[in-house]
Specification:
mainly alpha; four-stranded mixed sheet; 4 strands; about 350 residues
């Protein structure tokens, strides 16, 4: 009887703690259920494969009318196929869609992602973009464009468009993905080609693009500035997708997240070295944020997850926002002094 009573008390206490934690998170208090904002979704991949190449100029004009300047971004920056001119780009596009490898890739995309399979993602995107509109009501509410990127971009964002390369979310066990050359797509890269990362990665890219407009870091910046910048991106992602797991936001497995949490002080001791944290050597700094099998720095073991610098910067920004609850997202992005984030961070 006592055991049952203690278990009941413990369970109730745990429930109170969980409830209080959720209630104390200002990002989770935002309710956009009454928002009337409608988000537009388009399938550029299907529209391109449906082109009538017998009338190339008209086809190019139709795509431009529907997708606007993003069509030029797609041709020039994503596919890197041709300048955005009707007399040349449509011929390059015809070569793209008629290539056997791209045809196989598009067929697999259509098998994996018929419109009905995108409905759940559309719902998540709508929720996230409504949250963006809540925090930044004077900004453009982006539309979502699904595309075949030719294995160039998993996501590509502008102020008005969040584009998603469906070719990057076919799944690591997909038979076509397994044929991707390992020198270009190593296994750790293929392992991240999971559909449960689709919305998170696209929104992360959008947050990164928006953060870069106000808070610039370069390869010459010190490591602290770089990881705080990355931490701001992740905190913005918290605001857009507050219910997503931290492990999903980092593209980590549950065991990788457990490793990071268990070794936070260990990582901090390596990072806090003055020559490391305030170092400006690009090749050393990028090891902390590179997409890789693990974080490739001297004292960090190979069983670590990758991008521990981003994780630590995220922790710093979260600590700063907890210590300064009146700071808005606008003010967060505008804050240029990275040391302010460092000063409030106390690793656990």
């Amino acid at each position: 009887m006592c055991k049952v009573r203690y278990l009941l008390i413990f369970t109730m206490a745990l429930g109170i703690l969980t409830f209080s934690s959720c209630e104390n998170d200002p990002l989770k208090k935002v309710d956009v259920s009454e928002s009337k904002l409608e988000v537009k979704f388009s399938r550029l991949d299907k529209d391109i494969w449906a082109i009538d190449f017998q009338n190339p100029v008209a086809a190019s004009q139709q795509l431009y009318q529907k997708y606007g300047s993003f069509y030029c971004d797609y041709m020039e920056l994503i596919l890197q196929a041709a300048p955005c001119r009707p007399d040349s780009n449509i011929l390059a596009l015809e070569g793209f869609v008629s290539h056997p490898n791209m045809t196989d890739l598009q067929n697999r995309i259509q098998q994996k992602f018929p419109d009905s399979n995108l409905e759940s993602f559309n719902g998540e995107f709508t929720e996230a973009i409504r949250r963006w509109n809540h925090y930044f009501p004077d900004s453009i509410a982006p539309e979502v464009v699904y595309m075949n990127s030719g294995l160039n971009f998993s996501a590509f964002s502008t102020d008005s468009v969040i584009s998603v390369g469906l070719d990057f979310f076919l799944g690591p066990n997909d038979s076509l993905v397994k044929l991707f050359p390992p020198d270009i797509f190593p296994q750790y890269f293929k392992d991240d080609m999971r559909e449960d990362y689709l919305v998170v990665n696209a929104m992360k890219d959008f947050c990164w693009a928006q953060c870069n407009k106000q808070d610039h870091t370069t390869s010459k910046s010190d490591l602290l500035s770089i990881i705080v910048h990355q931490g701001k991106v992740m905190y913005m992602l918290d605001a857009m997708l507050p219910e997503a797991a931290d492990s999903t936001k980092m593209n980590w497995s549950a065991s990788q997240m457990e490793w990071a949490q268990a070794n936070e002080v260990r990582v901090w001791k390596e990072l806090a070295n003055q020559q490391v944290l305030f170092g400006t050597e690009h090749n050393k700094n990028k090891k902390w944020i590179d997409f890789a099998p693990f974080t490739r720095v001297e004292a960090i073991p190979q069983d670590s997850p990758p991008q521990l610098g981003i994780w630590m910067g995220w922790n710093m920004v979260r600590a700063y926002m907890k210590a300064n609850p009146d700071v808005t997202l606008h003010q967060l992005l505008a804050e240029k002094d990275a040391k302010k984030f460092l000063n409030v961070y106390k690793p656990k």
